Amino acid sequence: MLRTAIKNTLQSFEKGLLLSQKPLGLYAIPGNRSFHAAGSSLAPRGGHDTAHEERPRILITGSLGQLGSGLARLFRMRYGKDNVFMSDIRKPTRDITSKGPYIFADVLDYKCLQKIIVTHRIDWIVHFSALLSAVAEANVALAMRVNIEGTHNVMELANQYGLRVFIPSTIGAFGPESPRNPTPNVTIQRPKTIYGVSKVHTELLGEYYNHKYGLDFRCLRFPGVLSSDTHPGGGTTDYAIQIFHDALKEGRYTCYLGPNTRLPMMHIDDCLRSVVEIMEREPESLPVRTYNVAGASFTPDELAAEIRKSIPHFEINYRPDHRQAIADSWPEVLDDSAARNDWGWRPEYNTKRMVTSMLNDLRPVYQQSHGIESDVMTKQQLTVAA
């Protein structure tokens, strides 16, 4: 009996070696864990576990960018702080590390990512690591590595370990041949920036992996995202963030896009909610793997007019630069009817509410500053109060 047991053990070991030698991508470990989907409500899920419910363990790459910390906060409210791992190659602040796990993750290092997935038993990956449009154009070689090679690593590992993966796309995935108003969910794309090319590559590769191997790939095409929590990060739509800082700090802003450049935008609360909602949908309820989502579309001139309702003396000047050509190749209005119909997407912020939220969030920051900034704020608030 001992001899038989040893023989069986050796056969099992040899079988494992053969499996481990298969090329990556030729097999995937099926994801067989069942996670509770909380629907569209983003209320906290409570602090207890039940026998029938298992919470996903989530890795967010590039989490020190515009969206990472906010999404981590939402996921931690729903699934527990120890189940959500923020990661980046940058050193985090104490505030970040005090709120939950933070680990170093270089998306260009395949083994590093693989070790994280195995060690921390990751079930979902939200892949935010990327160079944004204007920065990518200034360093095409690095953009190719981060936006394409990094995405390859994430997708291959997600396929190998049977993970659910979300990778965002943007309006940058469209080009001048695309219909601009509105831009359908499925249409000609042909972007003219390396950023856009990398996003189309991500969309098509994810859909291929889904079709070929059953990878649970999910993707949303975001417009410009307005957030008061982070500073502009090199995107062409970032004028719509900087304008609020300069309005409160100086009372004036010089815009690098022309006054009538219409682009789709959304508030960060809507943006993060859309990620949570699509990640919690059951795979069979998503006939499409890449969706447009949007909030409102406006021009710099229209945005400035809305700001003047709260800051009457605000001035805006226009000095278009190389980013104008990028903006002119992007959608003016996104058609997000597919997301609305398939999984109930509904934005909560229009232009007026976005402006109100941004000003309310940033006012306390500049009220606490000194010198010119403090004087500008005081005068503006007195005018509004009168």
Automatic annotation (TrEMBL):
Pfam family, one: Epimerase
Coiled coil start-end: none
NAD-dependent epimerase/dehydratase domain segment(s): 58-294
InterPro entries, per the entry: Epimerase_deHydtase (IPR001509), NAD(P)-bd_dom_sf (IPR036291), NAD(P)_epim/dehydratase (IPR051225)
SUPFAM superfamilies named in the record: NAD(P)-binding Rossmann-fold domains (SSF51735)
Homology family: Belongs to the NAD(P)-dependent epimerase/dehydratase family.
Full protein name: NAD-dependent epimerase/dehydratase domain-containing protein
Organism whose genome encodes this protein: Orchesella dallaii
